[in-house]
Amino acid sequence: MAAVLRRAGAQLLRNNIQRGGHGWPGGSFWAEGTQTGRNGYIFGETPPPPGQKRKWESWELIFYTGFGIAGLTAWLTLYGPDNSLQAWARPHALAELAEEDEKFAAYAADSSLQQEMADKFTAMGKHPDRYYDAVMMRNEFAILQAKHNGA
Fold first, then answer.
1. Model confidence, pTM
2. Tens digit of pLDDT for each residue in 92-124?
3. Is the residue at 28 inside a domain?
4. Which member of 16, 72, 90, 106 has the lowest number of beta carbons within 10 Å of its beta carbon?
């Protein structure tokens, strides 16, 4: 068994196939670079000759596009339109509150309407002051809302 392992090890050393790195200057990707010193340009990249454009690397288009999309997404998330449920519901709620205000104002101004509502609540088996309680709760809500908004 030991002889077989020795022979296999020797065989591996003899048939050492170099894998990858054939196209890199200096022999492999991990070899020391070929640049001898600093040339004064950012990232050591020399500018192209006059009249020629710089050729992009293979990764640059994906990189710049990805960062552009990420930046646009971040900007829209932070400063874009308000798509919250509260923003959608606010106009509907304000319209309903204005309609309620009109009903409550009509109720407060008309004593016959007050008597009619009291009769309806009595017929339903509820105390006639329930409608008045609803008016009072609405007024308390308006006060709390004004406090919350800083008015």
1. 0.38
2. 988 988 888 887 787 778 778 778 877 877 787
3. no
4. 16
